[in-house]
Amino acid sequence: MSIEGVWRVEMLGPYGWEQLSTAFLQNGRYLGAGADHHSIGSYTSSDGIVKVKLRLTQHDQTRTVFGSKKKQVDIHIEGKIKKSGKVTAIAHPPGDSKFNIKMRLTRLGELD
Questions:
Q1: DSSP for 45-71?
Q2: What pLDDT, on a 0 to 100 scale, did the predictor assign at position 80?
């Protein structure tokens, strides 16, 4: 399955799955946004694995991400591409896997 397309991005929080943003993946580029943030980065996919490197920029009220409260946070996401149009993944800050957050992406549509 091609990873290119429009995706809903969710994270597992204390009260269940929380919708974070909508992401657009095309030609190795990752663009995402929600009401209070945007993300810009890149991705690779091979053999059913996707890896995303992005910078999250928060607007207005800043949320704590990976134990710190910053306007900009670098994030790595690594996940498995499922045939059902889903990706199950883990997000963490670069070089630090102690703050793993479970993520999932669900395909919403094509970019064409």
A1: EETTEEEEEEEEEE-SSPPPBTTB--S
A2: 97
